Fold this protein.
Amino acid sequence: MAAVTNTATTPSTELATDEMAVKAVHKRYEGLVMVRTKAIKGKGAWYWAHLEPNLVHNPDTGLPKAVKLRCSLCEALFSASNPSRTASEHLKRGTCPNFNSDSSPNPISSVSLAGMGSLSSPTSSSSPVQNNRKRNSSGNRRGGGFKVSDSETTYSVAPITMIEPPRFSVDVSYPTRPDPVHAFSGSHNHHHHHQQQQNHVMLSGGKEDLGALAMLEDSVKKLKTPKSTPGQTLTKAQIDSSLELLANWVYENCGSVSFSSLEHPKFKTFLNQIGLPAVSQRDLAGARLDSKYKEAKTESEARIRDTLFFQISSDGWKSKDLVNVCVNLPNGTSVYRRGVFTGGYVFSKHAEDVLWETICDICGNNLQQCVGIVSDKFRSKALRNLENQHHWMVNLSCQFQGVSKLIQDFSKELPLFHNVIENCLKVANFVNTKSLIRHSFLKYQVQEYGRAGLLRVPFRGGFEGVFEMVEDVLSSARALQLVFLDESWKMVAMEDQIGKEIEEMTMSRFWNELEAVHSLVGLIKGMGQEIEEEKPRIGQCLPLWEELRVKIKEWCGKFHVNENHVEKVFDKRFKRNYHPAWSVAFVLDPLYMIRDTSGKYLPPFKFLSSEQEKDVDKLITRLVSREEAHIALMELMKWRTEGLDPMYAQAVQLKQRDPITGKMKIANPQSSRLVWETHLTDFKCLRKVAMRLIFLHATSCGFKWSSSLCRWAQSRNAIDKAQKLIFIAAQSKIERRDFSNDEEKDAEFFSLASREDDVLNEVLFDVSSL
């Protein structure tokens, strides 16, 4: 009776429970089907091609009671709780008898060799070991040979007697029809004789001998069977063209595709399968590389010769490994010039020498062809020295670096950042080191996000590690809040002073300040990313910094931060990056002209400060000869009062929607310069300044190379080959406008795949919590 009274559930309660269970099972099933559908379309994990969600029904009620994963290759059923682990254990580790994988040994029934087909038993899909056990248990010991079959013919191999006791034996039988190819004898009767003598093959090498035995049979087959006529043979022209494409692929993926990988046996087999000869490292790194480099170099130099002037772009001084030197042309394109291996800290004087040597090498006697340099470092010394020595040059620091350094400035000078960093360190160290709290935190992470991990604590200098910690704390906010309410927290916090401080801290402004810091860093990083992608010209620098100033001011209002203090930090960084050429390009570029009440389009002088207006006069007089200085200033006054013909101004400012990003962009960015070159011919001196300034780039964001390049480029010969490879690859990247590296692309791809797995996990955890 006690047992009966303890289960006090009414029929209606049981019915409601059953309905919830059925809904939960259906939800899990639908989630799995959704993920599998996406995977089949190429947007998910590989293993979904072999695993199918199945509903398992209760035989009594007919209602679904569970979801299982069925292997489409062997019909086995598995739990659906962890598809990735199921795929790893069942498919990758060779448990599935019908799954072919190069990474793990397969049973003889699934071994596939070149030119032979698969080895399998004609009567069963199970492995030889399983067949042997079945026959032994039933007393069927007809063996005397080992059957090896392909899609057309079944072959028999005579048994081989071993002296030592077998570690692995295979029971064998013979086909009912005579074998057309006899491996070790000339007649079927000879096989029958051996069949009477021995029942099974004993292989002293164990299971691994099966592959060798199959290869032996394959060799016999090739000797006995005439070679089949190939379907199609590549012509010499097709082979040469294919090898050229292959070589270009290796060169253009410099650092990502190693030369040694070309010697991989499977790659050689692949080439042989498609009718191409093997490619040697020596061939690719020898005359073929020299020829390709010469071709790319000749094309690059021809494009530079066709232009009246250019800008040098220097990137990589901060990385201390490889410096990329490019040439920016007035038509908006660029060409690669050279790669300089540094191998350590580079002094300002050495950087100055490298840049000037590059300019002289390109220009020869016509040094004024180079109108400026943009670099990611050495603004204060090397660039300034070169600019002072050559009056026609405008040397700039990279604006991506300038904007990014704002984060460091705020982290050093704003008390808000100090508070948030200190508080996050307290939380992270306390949660990570206290076992009860750590266990509770990981539990709530799994409950809320379907994943778990400790909070990252910075172990290196710079703000990047700090920001990772801030992101971790903020992204785990819900789990941390549940930890603070948990009994384990109360037990530890009662006896620990730091725990009490953390509890008080999180009850005040901690989360608001944390969000404020994260928001500001994200805002600045977003602006930096936009600058890196858009690669603005120097006329856009003033509007960009003003836009960033307005956004930061709005941020101050949203999070109630002292605006005066923030503005001081901002102005300090702005002044360190500012160059007078920003103001000159801003007022000379027709893109920024403003229509006044009379209908004229006038330059935007009213947006300049009095100091910036003086900069305009000073820089223009420096960029022209002494004889032309007063003429240029008179023309500047005329430009300021008369402006540009409205039709031309509107044509320059015409915008269209970018089909990729969806943003409105200038339809023809070259119009600003072309107006000065072809239409504003009355401005004899001022047009020279405008033509040389307007096209200048404000960033030097270059290429991201694999670190392996710098490791093997040690000797003089290796450095020479590395520089040639870099030149070819860089020129290809410029043409494709692809400045990322394969490591970043792979990381992005796997992060997308991880997010898809998170969707699946969310479905599974939501269901399991019902």
Notes: The first strand starts at residue 51 and ends at 57.
